[in-house]
Amino acid sequence: MENYRCPWAQNNEWNRHYHDTEWGVPLHDDKNLFEFLVLDTFQAGLSWLTILKKRENFRLAFADFDAHRIAVFSEDDVFRLMQNDGIIRNQLKIKATITNAKAFLEVQKKYGSFDAYIWQFTDNKVIINHWKEQSQVPASSKESDAMSKSMKKHGFKFVGTTICYAFMQAAGMINDHVSDCFRFNEIIRKQ
After folding, report:
1. 3-state secondary structure the chain
2. Domain containing 91 — which CATH number?
3. Is-above-0.90 flag for pTM?
4. Could you tell me if residue 136 is inside a domain?
5. Do strands 127-128 and 174-175 pair parallel, antiparallel, or not at all (unpaired)?
6. HSE-up (13 A, CA, CB side) for residue 154
7. Alpha-carbon gap, residue 15 to 155, rounded angstroms
8. Is there a domain that residue 48 lies in?
9. Which domain holds residue 91?
10. Whole-number Å distance between alpha carbons of 151 and 100
C-alpha cells in the first residue's frame, strides 16, 4: 500500500515527517551520526516525539552537534545547559554528551572515521528485517549488544544495547520499517 506507514509514525506530524524522510535511511556522514548519538542519549527513558520537538533547541545548545566544540565544554557550559528549558535538563545526559564527544573524536582518530567504526557492527551493510507487525520489532539484537559493549570500552556513556539498537534504526544500519510500509522498499531501492 503506497500510503501505509509504520504504526508508530501515524500518530502525529512530527513522527510522520521524521519517519518519511529520515528514519532508516543509511547514514555515513560523521556529523549526522554524532547528532543521532546525542539525540539518542537524551531520548533514554523518554519518547522520541519529545526529542523531535526539541531537536532544533538541541542543535543550538550543542554547537550544531560539532563534536570538537562540545568536547571542550566546561562546567560553566553544563550550568548554562541546565538552565536551558528548550532541551532536556538532565545533568547526567549533558555530561555524557561531553564525554561522548571526546570518545567520538578518539574513535575518529583510531578508525579514520566514526562511520568506519560504527558500520562494522553490521558488516558494513544494512540489515533488512521483514517484520509484518510493529510488535515483532525487537528492542535489541546481537549487533546492538556488540556495539554497546565496544562503545563502553571506548568510554561512551548512555550506550546500552537498547539505545544502540535505536541508533542503528535511526542511522539506517537496520531497516526495521514493517514490510507493508511504503518506506521499506523505498529505502532498499536507494541502497
Report:
1. CCCCCCHHHCCCHHHHHHHHHCCCCCCCCHHHHHHHHHHHHHHCCCCHHHHHHHHHHHHHHCHHHCHHHHCCCCHHHHHHHHCCCCCCCCHHHHHHHHHHHHHHHHHHHHHCCHHHHHHHHHCCCCEECCCCCHHHCCCCCHHHHHHHHHHHHCCCCCCCHHHHHHHHHHCCCEECCCCCCHHHHHHHHHC
2. 1.10.340.30
3. yes
4. yes
5. parallel
6. 24
7. 31
8. yes
9. 8-190
10. 9
- In this structure, is residue 52 part of a structural domain? yes
| Sign of the dihedral through C-alpha 148, 154, 158, 163 | negative
Q: Residue 67: name the closest of 30, 42, 93 by CA.
A: 30
- Cα dihedral: 69, 74, 75, 77 (round 10): -40
Tally of structural domains, the chain: 1
pLDDT tens over the chain, length 191 residues: 557 999 999 989 999 999 999 999 999 999 999 999 999 999 999 999 999 999 999 999 999 999 999 999 999 999 999 999 999 999 999 999 999 999 999 999 999 999 999 999 999 999 999 999 999 999 999 999 999 999 999 999 999 999 999 999 999 999 999 999 999 989 988 76
Residue 2 lies in a domain: no
Asked if 89 and 80 touch (Cβ cutoff 8 Å), the reply is no
